[in-house]
Amino acid sequence: MFDFLTRLFSKEESSRQRAKDRLRLVLVQDRAIISPNLMEQMRVELLDVVSKYMEIDERNLEFNLERDDEAIALVASIPIRRLKRPGPGSLQ
Amino acid sequence: MPGKVIVITSGKGGVGKTTATANIGTALALLGHKVCLVDADIGLRNLDVVMGLENRIVYDLVEVIEGACKLRSALIKDKRTDNLYLLPAAQTREKDAISPEQMKALTQELVQEFEYVLMDSPAGIEHGFRNAIAGADEAIIVTTPEVSAVRDADRIIGLLEAYELYEPKLVINRIRPDMIKRGDMMNIQDVREILAIPLLGVIPDDQTIVVATNKGEPAIFNPKSKAGMAYKNIARRVKGEDVPFMALEQNGLVDKFKRMIPLPFSRRNSN
Ligand SMILES: Nc1ncnc2c1ncn2[C@@H]1O[C@H](COP(=O)(O)OP(=O)(O)O)[C@@H](O)[C@H]1O
Ligand SMILES: [Mg+2]
Predict the structure, then answer these.
(1) What's the number of domains chain B is made of?
(2) First to last CA, chain A
(3) Are B154 and A3 inside 8 Å of each other by CB?
(4) Nearest residue CA, atom 23 of ligand 1?
(5) ipTM, 2 decimals?
(6) What is the CATH number of the domain that holds B146?
């Protein structure tokens, strides 16, 4: 009974609620995991596109799924060596 | 008509698969069906002990698959219940001693003889798991209301889909009504919402399970066992009967529960 009262008057969240919240998040992450093969394919295709416009430093490239407490993001850091000279098309 | 193969699986170990297999299988046999329990946990034989049949083993599943003995001579007749047989796992072999294809062939032979073949799956998602689900028509997923167990159950649901085993049914084991009441354990509704598969039953955390395992006599034989009662209800739901859920929960959860009676297991399409 005392236990019940302290809970009622404190703002402490129940461990049931904590369990639910943590599960929700971890499952969002689990379900979003992409196979290494797909990641690699995506990386290659993305680099293809970017390389059309700029010369990139492939060795220092970062391309990862990153997560914080709330969400998942695809984070790409692509160092540029040199911008390509504008070709004829770029003037239009 | 050939019988049905049901795999009992979980992802996480120690959540109650073997106990569930023993109890549901025995209950189905007591309801008059011809049942075979298969211990697919190769290297970690367990079901024989829970059934109290450990002294009767002569041959095992791997020997049957390798053709070292006839299927018939490896099947152990239960000592209490007619119509109930156990095919024990090999104890001194590796999980990869057999392949999913071989396992599938074995289950096809078993369903000629038995109405229900219950596969007790090992923990994990590797070779042993793939063997256990290879010949299955349907799956039962066992979880406890804990974060790690539910997470693994979610993973297993995805894997089962990848292997074309759809619509698994959920058993939530080791529920503690006192803790649920205090808000210290996820309740049935919480777990169901997260996993989103039909509920087959809920088993209380119950000391009679430990006593039953000590004796090698499934809890369904103990008329005082609440867990035993819950397993009997599950067996009838597996048959497709519409059995109301037990009043395990206080706080008006019972009513919610009644609206969630699972769909009966579809009869195996004869193909
Ligand atoms: N409902 C329950 N109440 C109390 N103990 C249980 C219950 N279900 C399982 N257990 C105990 O938990 C342990 C693991 O169960 P087991 O069926 O062997 O799990 P698994 O086959 O999934 O590894 C055993 O000691 C068993 O007696
Ligand atoms: Mg087991």
Answers:
(1) 1
(2) 78
(3) no
(4) B14
(5) 0.77
(6) 3.40.50.300
